[in-house]
Amino acid sequence: MPRFKTILVTGGAGYIGSHCVVDLLEAGYEVVAIDNFANAVGGDEGSPALQRAEQITGKTITFYRADLLDKPQINDIFDKHQVDCVIHFAALKAVGESMQQPLLYYQNNLLGMLNLLEVMRSHDCYQMVFSSSCTVYGEPENLPITETHPTGKITNVYGRTKYFIEEMLKDLSAAEKKWNIISLRYFNPVGAHPSGLIGEDPTKEFTNLMPFMAQVALGKKPVLTVFGNDYNTPDGTGIRDYIHVMDLAAGHVAALKLLNENHVGLKVYNLGTGRGVSVKQIVDVFERVTNTKIPLKYVSRRLGDITAMWADATLAKEELDWTTKYTLEEMCTDFWRWQTMNPDGYPKKNMKTKVVITNGNS
């Protein structure tokens, strides 16, 4: 049994959060999850994703519907539980929306983190895994990207919130040596749990490639909109490092292990496969493994998008003993299993997950 016993997962009902919760439970941790359902399906009845995570693992999750902007509510949760470490996923995350509503993103992502850190400190909890993003690198100066690549020249507001939080954590860990933080810079998470029970169910307009592509394959949308086919890449479409969400979840468990065993201060790791794949290439693989046809419609580039980006994940391999295991074909197959088993995503009502409401807030 790990020395860390109870892990608080913010944004635990979301796509990455719910998959990580499964891995945490299977690794022997107890999980307290919170979510305000800004990016996840659920409500006062609870979270269908976490209900299914309980089904997959046979273990119980303590869940609170809570908002990091409500500091007394978060304080109350910490009063109730001896939290050993926090995995912080909760954030608004749509690049396009962030460009249209910058104040919303700064308020939610930055103030939410400030409140969380202050409540953690007041409860003597100094261990954190932070969900960061490869967007902090901006347009790459060289590829593949290592953790020493310059950060800060960022092309969108969402990425700037992640960058500002990383700078905040840098200052905090320098000023107060008790803090023990790992910041994980994700590349592009796709796929779903192999059971098909949990997966990505966007609550806003479909902007992520794989859910959009699957909706087209199901006949729910007529065509896949591809933003830009005039990039300086072999086929003109943007190149990204797609990583299976279960590999990403395993990266968090590996980060917890390192925090458990060492005082690192603040460390940063890329989580990616180290391989760049174009939009056109992933569409081709998806069509092949699912035996479907995806009509494409090319439109102009989105504001804030970059040409190509993929990771050098050597440091995570060396220090976290973590590498990706899933292939691009498995990413597509697992997502298609989730989507065909759940063509409309999660059930939107009659959810049975027990919700604890604190301070009268719901």
Oligomer: single chain
How many helices in DSSP terms? 11
Q: What is the helix/strand order?
A: EHEHEHEHHEHEEHEEEHEEHEHH
What is the first-to-last residue Cα distance?
34 Å
Could you describe the largest sheet, including whether it forms a barrel? Answer: 7 strands, parallel
Q: Over all CA atoms, what is the radius of gyration?
A: 19 Å
Shape: globular
* Counted beta strands: 13
Helix content: 25-40%
Strand adjacency order, main sheet: 3-2-1-4-5-6-11
Low-confidence segments, ≥5 residues, pLDDT <50?
351-362
What is the beta-strand fraction?
A: 15-25%
Structural class determined from secondary elements: alpha/beta
InterPro entries: NAD(P)-bd_dom (IPR016040), UDP_G4E (IPR005886)
Protein name: UDP-glucose 4-epimerase
Cofactor: NAD(+)
Domain NAD(P)-binding: 8-334
